[in-house]
Amino acid sequence: MHYQAKEINAHFVSDNDISFQLYDGKHIPFSDHSFETIMTVNTIYFWQNPKTYLSELCRVLRPNGNFILTFATKKFMKGLSFAKHGFTLYELEDVKKLIKTTGFTISETKELEEVVQSKDGSMVHREFVVVKLLK
Description:
Layout: H1 2-8, H2 10-15, E1 35-41, H3 50-60, E2 61-72, H4 74-77, H5 92-99, E3 105-117, E4 123-134
Parallel strand pairs: 1-2
Antiparallel strand pairs: 2-4, 3-4
């Protein structure tokens, strides 16, 4: 994925101050307070230790920084055959419990739905959540 991200977005990387970093998924290789905003989409399912990882995200985020966490709901993901292998599934309430153990506060949540085309060509009703957190 790292290689593909760099390849697909090469024109952005060469023209701007944008880069893609590969790391171990546990320790974010940046100093404290490095970022104003952090956003992640559909990665929470793979965090080995969500509480520890949220603490790492909090560490690299500046004071008063924003963290946007987006994920598809457990209800939706259960219907996907591949999600049975290596995914930890969440509903909004599960994520709220995790957030309580961190240095973040929830400023806004949105539970959204959309109809999208799946890889097999069928139309799928996808439920997802966007959580805006503040440090």
